[in-house]
From TrEMBL:
Residues 629-652 are annotated as: Disordered. It holds the Pfam family Exo_endo_phos. It comes from Anaerohalosphaera lusitana. The keyword Plastid does not apply. Residues 629-639 have a biased composition (Polar residues). Residues 390-706 form the Endonuclease/exonuclease/phosphatase domain. GO terms for molecular function: endonuclease activity; exonuclease activity. Keywords: Endonuclease, Exonuclease, Hydrolase, Nuclease. InterPro entries: Endo/exonu/phosph_ase_sf, Endo/exonuclease/phosphatase. This is Endonuclease/Exonuclease/phosphatase family protein.
C-alpha cells in the first residue's frame, strides 16, 4: 500500500503550494506555472535558497494531466540545483513521484537526486533512477552505475522517499512506494549541510526522458524517517521453563503516533500461553509500552531439551499506515522438563539415562581415571589459571561498510563501539583480530579501555595483559601470519598466533558448490575430494604456519593459533556429516546437499602437528554442533553479498561453514569450554533465516559478517 506523509507543521512555518499532507497522491495541474514550481516543499526560512537551472531550459514540458516531462541529454549536466544550507541537526526529507519513460543508453541511469554535503564530497545520499530500478552511489560502490534495487520504474509512477533524522539510529532511509529499501545510506559520512541537485547531474547518469508528478522537500524537522511507516516496537527475549520459572515477559508499543486506534491481536501455539491476546493503542497512549506475560505449558511430551515457539501479531486500524502492517513473530525459548519426568535429570544421573544406579558410579570412576592422563579434555588442576581466548574477524576494521547487511542498523555506520561491546560481553581476556583496525589511536581499543583500563593492543590482538612480539617467530605480514606472546600470570606466557589464510583456488565450500551447479561431481567421491583439494590447497602456507607453531609445540609451551582461515575443517566434513549433517548451501534447490567427506589439508596439517581444535574438543560431533561462523544472516539486497534466505532469486545462494578456529597445544593446557558467539536471531535483520544458531547470542546488532569463537582454558604452571 502507498504510505503518504504524516506531517504536523509548526505554526511559524509558512504555507507552501501543497506541502506534505496526508492523503495527497498527486497535485492540481493548475499549480504548475513554471517548471521550477514543480519543485515544492516545506522549508525553514534561510535554508533552501532559490532554485537555479543548468541546461534545463527548453527541456521540460508541462503535460495536460499536470505532470512534467524532462528530457535530458548525455552530453551536458541538465539539472536544477539549490545552494542553500540544510541543517542536519533538525533533519530533512524529500519525496519524488516519477516515471522513467526512456533511457538514452540502455541499462544506464536516466535521472538523479543528490543531497551533497557542502564540503564538495558526494557523501550524503545520491540516488539514481533507471527504467528497471534504483541505485545509490554508496550502495553499489560504482557511482550508482548499476541497479541496487530492481523495480519497474517505466510502466507506472513510483513514489521514492529519502529522509535523514539525526535522532534516529538508522540515519538516512530510502523507501519505494512505502516499502523500506535501505537504512544508513549516508551513515556517518553525512555532514551538517547539503546542496541539492535534481536532474541529470552526475557523469554516470546518461540521460533520457523522465515524467515527474511532484518533488517535495521538508527541512522543518517535523518529519522523522522512523515515522514513514507504522511500526510496532517489541522489546524482550522471553525464556520460559516448563518446571519453573514458567513465565517471562515482553512489551509492545508503537514507534509512530497513529491518527486512529490500532488493535494488535496476539496468537501463540500450544507450547505457551499469553495473559493478553489483544492490545489497543490510541493517539494518546501509542508510546506507552504494554506488558505481556508468556507462560510455558507443562505438557507430558518429551521434546528437545530446548525448543522454540513463535508469537504472531496481526494489526488492524483505520489508520492506513498501520492497517495490516507486517510484524515479525517473536521467538520464545522453552526448556522442556519431560526428558526424565517433571524434575528433569537428577544431579546423580551422571550418564543421563534417567536412572540413578551403579552405572552412574561406574561413569564417575571412568571420568576420574581418565583425568589421570595428562592434559585430558575436561581435566585440570584446581590451581590452574583460567584464560578466555577469542578469535573475531571484525570486517574492515569496524569502519562503515555496506556488506554488514542492508537492513542492519549498522549499515554504513562505524562499528567500533559495537565490536568492543561484543568483546566485553564475551568475557574474553585475549582477542585475536582479523581485518583489524589500523587507526592510531584505535577507536576499538579506546572503547574497551573505557570499560576496563587494563586492555591494551599490539598488532592483531587485544589483551588485558602485557603483550610482546613472539621472540621465536617474528610477525610476517606478507604471509598473513602474526605472532605474539601474552604475560597472563606473573612469569607465565601464552604464545598467540593469528592467521588469515587465502586459498588460491577460492573458498573451498563454494568450489564444491560450483561443481554441484555445473553437474560435475563424479561418482568416485575420493577422486572428487582430491580434485577439490588440489584446486584450493595452499600447502606451503599450511607448512609455514605449522613450522612456526612447532617451535612451541616441541618445547611444550602454551600456544594458541586462531583466525579466519577461509577454509573448511576436516573435523567437520566427515563421513557421518555427509549422511546426516545440515546442508551448508542455503536454499539449495539442486537436489544434491552440500556435504561431503573431505579431509581439508589446512586443519589436518595443524592437527597432525599436535594442535587441538578447541571447539571440536568440547563438541566432537559436527552433526549435532556444526558451529558455523560464516556467515550470519543478512538481507538479500545487501551489496556485495550472495542472497541468503528462501525468498532470494535463484542461486547460487550463500554457503555457510565453520571457518574461524581456535587451536591450542602445550603442556598443562586444558580446554574446558568453547562457544560460537553471534547474532540474536530475534533481531529483525536476522529473523527466520538461519537454522543453525550461535551458542551465545549477542545482545545488540551483530557488527560483523563473521561470528566469533571463544575458548576457555585452564593453564597449569
Amino acid at each position: 500500500m502507498t504510505l503518504p506523509f504524516r506531517i504536523l507543521l509548526p505554526a511559524v512555518i509558512f504555507t507552501c503550494i501543497c506541502g506534505f499532507a496526508r492523503g495527497i497522491e498527486s497535485r492540481d495541474s493548475l499549480n504548475f506555472i513554471t517548471s521550477l514550481e514543480q519543485i515544492e516543499g516545506n522549508v525553514l526560512p534561510g535554508t533552501l535558497s532559490s532554485w537555479t537551472t543548468t541546461n534545463i531550459d527548453g527541456k521540460t514540458t508541462i503535460n495536460g494531466d499536470g505532470t512534467m516531462t524532462v528530457s535530458t541529454s548525455d552530453s551536458s549536466f541538465d539539472a536544477w540545483s539549490n545552494a542553500g544550507t540544510v541543517d542536519s541537526s533538525i533533519g530533512w526529507t524529500w519525496e519524488a513521484r516519477l516515471r522513467i519513460d526512456s533511457d538514452l543508453v540502455a541499462g544506464a541511469p536516466v535521472f538523479d537526486m543528490i543531497s551533497r554535503d557542502n564540503t564538495g564530497e558526494f557523501a550524503a545520499p545520491w540516488i539514481m533512477f533507471f527504467a528497471n530500478g534504483i541505485s545509490d552511489r554508496g550502495t553499489t560502490g560504482d557511482y550508482g552505475a548499476t541497479v541496487a534495487w530492481s523495480a519497474d520504474m517505466s510502466t507506472n509512477f513510483r513514489t521514492v522517499r529519502m529522509a535523514y533524522d539525526p535522532y534516529d539510529g538508522n540515519g538516512t532511509r530510502l523507501w519505494l512506494d512505502g516499502e523500506l529499501l535501505a537504512t544508513n545510506i549516508a551513515g556517518d559520512f553525512y555532514n551538517a549541510s547539503s546542496m541539492i541537485f535534481i536532474g541529470r547531474w552526475s557523469a554516470p547518469t546518461k540521460g533520457g526522458q523522465t515524467t515527474i508528478d511532484y518533488i517535495r522537500f521538508d527541512t522543518t524537522g517535523a518529519y522523522s524517517p522512523s515515522a514513514a511507516l507504522g511500526n510496532v516496537v517489541i522489546s524482550g527475549d522471553p525464556v520460559v521453563y516448563e518446571d519453573g520459572p514458567t513465565a517471562d515477559t515482553f512489551t509492545v508499543s508503537l514507534g509512530v503516533a497513529p491518527v486512529e486506534d490500532v488493535t494488535i491481536t496476539l496468537a501463540a501455539d500450544d507450547q505457551i500461553s499469553l495473559d493478553i491476546d489483544k492490545l489497543v493503542f490510541t493517539p494518546d497512549n501509542w508510546n506507552t509500552a504494554q506488558t505481556i506475560t508468556v507462560t510455558a505449558i507443562d505438557d507430558e511430551v518429551a521434546e528437545e531439551s530446548t525448543h522454540n515457539s513463535d508469537i504472531t501479531f496481526s494489526v488492524t486500524s483505520a489508520d492506513e499506515d498501520y492497517d495490516d502492517v507486517a510484524v515479525t513473530p517473536l521467538t520464545v525459548l522453552i526448556y522442556d522438563n519431560n526428558l526424565c519426568g517433571p524434575g528433569g535429570y537428577l544431579t546423580a544421573d551422571v550418564n543421563k539415562d534417567c536412572i540413578v544406579d551403579l552405572a552412574d558410579l561406574a561413569e564417575i570412576a571412568r571420568q576420574w581415571l581418565a583425568c589421570t592422563v595428562t592434559n585430558r579434555i575436561g581435566c585440570y588442576n584446581v590451581n590452574a589459571t583460567e584464560l578466555k581466548v577469542m578469535t573475531f574477524n571484525i570486517l574492515s576494521g569496524g569502519d562503515p561498510v555496506a556488506t554488514i547487511g542492508a537492513t542492519s542498523p549498522l549499515y554504513y555506520k562505524n562499528r567500533y563501539q559495537d565490536i568492543a561491546n561484543v568483546i566485553i560481553e564475551s568475557g574474553a581476556d585475549i582477542v585475536g583480530i582479523t581485518e583489524h583496525n589500523t587507526s592510531n589511536p584505535d577507536p576499538i581499543l579506546t572503547a574497551l579501555q573505557a570499560n576496563d583500563s587494563s586492555w591494551r593492543k599490539l598488532g592483531k590482538i587485544y589483551a588485558k595483559f602485557a603483550i610482546e612480539q613472539d621472540p621465536y617467530n617474528p610477525s610476517n605480514s606478507s604471509r598473513n601470519s602474526y605472532a605474539y606472546r601474552v604475560n597472563f600470570n606473573e612469569d607465565q606466557w601464552i604464545y598467540v598466533h593469528v592467521a588469515h589464510w587465502w586459498p588460491s583456488g577460492g573458498y573451498g565450500p563454494m568450489v564444491v558448490q560450483n561443481r554441484i551447479i555445473n553437474g560435475s561431481v563424479p561418482a568416485d567421491l575420493e577422486q572428487f575430494e582430491q580434485e577439490i583439494l588440489n584446486t584450493i590447497s595452499i600447502q606451503e602456507t599450511y607448512n609455514y604456519t605449522r613450522d612456526r607453531l612447532q617451535t612451541h609445540i616441541d618445547a611444550g609451551r602454551p600456544v594458541v593459533l586462531m583466525g579466519d582461515f577461509n577454509e573448511a575443517s576436516h573435523l567437520d566434513w566427515t563421513a557421518d556429516y555427509m549422511v546426516s549433517g545440515a546442508d551448508r548451501w542455503i536454499n539449495n534447490s539442486s537436489g544434491t546437499p552440500l556435504r561431503f567427506d573431505i579431509e581439508w589439508r589446512g586443519s589436518k596439517t595443524m592437527t597432525d602437528a599436535g594442535m587441538v581444535d578447541a571447539y571440536r574438543a568440547i563438541f566432537p560431533d559436527p552433526v549435532a554442533k556444526p558451529g558455523n561462523t560464516w556467515t550470519p544472516p543478512y538481507a538479500n539486497n545487501t551489496p556485495g553479498r550472495r542472497p541468503y534466505d528462501a525468498d532470494a532469486p535463484d542461486g547460487p545462494n550463500q554457503v555457510v561453514d565453520r571457518i574461524d578456529w581456535i587451536m591450542y597445544a602445550g603442556k598443562g593446557v586444558m580446554v574446558t569450554d568453547a562457544a560460537v558467539i553471534g547474532e540474536n536471531p530475534n533481531n529483525p535483520e536476522h529473523q527466520g533465516k538461519s537454522e543453525i544458531q550461535p551458542d551465545i547470542r549477542y545482545s545488540g546488532s551483530w557488527p560483523s559478517d563473521h561470528r566469533g569463537v571463544i575458548a576457555t582454558f585452564k593453564i597449569e604452571r
